[in-house]
Specification:
heterodimer; A: mainly alpha; disordered C terminus; B: eight-stranded antiparallel sheet; six-stranded mixed sheet; 17 strands; 34% strand
Chain lengths: 240, 308
């Protein structure tokens, strides 16, 4: 257990001493999280709305695909993407392999089904007839979607938290696509993995503790927003 | 009189490849309040969806002159205040932002729901939610307003109160109104024209008074509450309780088979040689098994040969 206490002490020391290595890891991790979550929300929210509210042939298949995406092994996604990014492959001309941009893409691909599937599930659970009534009162497609997003906001906040969690803690795709390059595209999670693989357990634990603290902070902030949204409605301060 | 606001010709509507509404010809003119009445499964809500354009015709056409709004039966509300629900419906309808609040409050007042304006819908009862839902519909000032079973799933007192409150707004909120109702009292209370629908077809279309005075067929008469049924020579006579009186010199002698307590009276089911009748008498009334002479002072008569 000594390495655990040593790790905690080192983690604290790294944090309070403003270690540039750790600062860089935190910045890269937050950038990857922000970019991949925003990208997943931009693409995944409309997809989830279409799957959840649409009436089209193949809707069940689309929902099943999104659900499969939820449980895809990140290593598999990373492997496929890295193969696609090789110079002679379809994405080769974009020079994404072993770059931060490649990591953004890989993490976005992993977060996308999370947002899509959970959004579809949230809007499917809306009160029966809510959207149909809006349509009957003249609501445009955009207004129907806005209504669905607003009414399903608790579930969509959950989808966002899950996407953030995935981006913060996932390592498989980061290592395979980004190469886990220190000072470039290495994140807190992939750095912790590297340290453990190198037998530097105390350093690994230190980084993992920092990562855990970051996860707690980010998820707590998102949860506070989620709960505030629910209270906002309950307090009757909403307006049309 | 001006042309119809909405006209359906030869309208057939299907759900899941099964035709539910058959060959309906129907028109609504300005100023009319039309009730579509019929038993469960008659196709009333499907017809309304077809008239609103939500369901494409399987055959036939629907032509509307003006904007049509359909208030669905369940009328789910968003998780916000009552006023905000009305305002957002006005936004969907395209009403400028500056007008929404005043129109929403006016509609809520018309439905006796102004005191609910700032309440969250989660805190409202079923009857209060229905008022807010109908306030949304009334606020739109659509050219043609379609209401699908606006009183369904309400208890009797809530329904009666809402029926009283909506009778005014229904006439002023749109150029014409079509409402599907399940209960005859709702049709008599609101409409100046009643359409009876059975098995996907329109089988009667007239004013409430004319329909009650002369229902076009025995089936329509039975549906409209003509529960007494006699054979009188070659004629089938159908009567409502109001058409039958206790009369010691009456033509029909029968035996009381059932007593049903009503609020201020007792309804008696009487079996006689020619058939069965229902009559309403003041309490205490005769017991089951008592002999009674009755006279029929109204009702509908049909040739027996054509209506077995």
């Amino acid at each position: 257990m000594d390495f655990l206490w040593s790790g905690i002490r080192q983690g604290w020391h790294l944090l309070v001493s403003g270690d540039p290595y750790l600062d860089h890891l935190i910045v890269v991790t937050l950038k990857v999280t922000a970019v991949s979550t925003i990208a997943a929300l931009v693409v995944g929210l409309p997809l989830g709305l279409v799957i959840g509210l649409g009436r089209f042939p193949g809707r069940g298949v689309a929902r099943a695909l999104a659900n499969i995406g939820l449980v895809l092994p990140p290593v598999l996604v990373g492997l496929v993407l890295s193969l696609l990014m090789f110079p002679a492959s379809p994405l080769g001309r974009f020079h994404l392999l072993f770059t931060l941009r490649g990591v953004y893409l890989a993490q976005s691909v992993l977060a996308l089904p999370i947002v899509t599937a959970l959004t579809a599930s949230a809007v499917t659970s809306l009160p029966e007839g809510l959207i149909d009534q809006a349509r009957a009162f003249g609501a445009s497609r955009t207004q129907q979607w806005a209504l669905a997003l607003r009414e399903a906001r608790f579930g969509i906040a959950t989808a966002t938290i899950a996407a953030v969690g995935s981006a913060l803690s996932e390592v498989g795709a980061v290592v395979l696509v980004g190469g886990n390059i220190e000072g470039s595209d290495q994140t807190l999670a992939s750095a912790a993995l590297e340290k453990v693989n190198a037998g530097q357990f105390a350093e690994g634990v230190a980084i993992a503790i920092v990562l855990l603290g970051l996860i707690v902070l980010v998820v707590a902030a998102l949860t506070a927003l989620q709960v505030r949204g629910a209270r906002f409605t309950a307090a009757g301060r909403s307006s049309a | 009189m001006s042309g119809p606001l909405l006209q359906a010709r030869g309208l057939c509507l299907a759900r899941r490849r099964s035709e539910i509404v058959h060959d309906v010809d129907f028109a609504v003119r300005e100023g009319e309040v039309v009730a579509i009445l019929g038993p469960n499964g008659a196709g009333k809500s499907t017809l309304l969806a077809g008239l609103a354009g939500e369901l494409a015709p399987h055959m036939g056409t629907v032509t509307a002159h003006g904007r049509v709004a359909l208030a669905h039966q369940n009328g789910a509300l968003a998780a916000r205040s009552a006023r905000a629900n009305v305002e957002v419906a006005l936004a969907w309808w395209g009403v400028p932002a500056g007008e929404r609040r005043a129109r929403a409050m006016r509609a809520l007042e018309q439905l006796s729901a102004a005191d609910l304006a700032e309440r969250q819908v989660a805190t409202l009862s079923g009857g209060q939610r229905r008022r807010v839902h109908l306030a949304r519909a009334v606020a739109l000032n659509a050219d043609l307003l379609l209401l699908d079973e606006p009183f369904t799933a309400l208890d009797v007192s809530a329904r009666d109160a809402l029926l009283d409150d909506i009778s005014g707004p229904v006439r002023t909120s749109a150029r014409a109104v079509v409402l599907v109702v399940h209960d005859r009292a709702e049709a008599w209370g609101l409409a100046d024209r009643v359409v009876v629908m059975m098995s996907g077809r329109l089988v009667a279309d007239d004013t409430p008074h004319a329909l009650l005075a002369a229902p076009p067929s025995p089936d329509v008469a039975r549906f409209l509450g003509f529960s007494g049924e006699l054979r009188d020579g070659d004629e089938l006579v159908l009567t409502r309780p109001a058409h039958v009186v206790v009369d010691p010199s009456g033509r029909y002698e029968g035996t009381v088979t059932r007593r049903v307590m009503q609020e201020d009276a007792i309804r008696l089911d009487v079996r006689c040689e020619q058939g069965r009748l229902q009559v309403v008498v003041p309490p205490p009334g005769p017991d089951v098994g008592s002999a009674l002479r009755l006279a029929v002072v109204g009702g509908a008569r049909f040739a027996s040969a054509s209506h077995p």
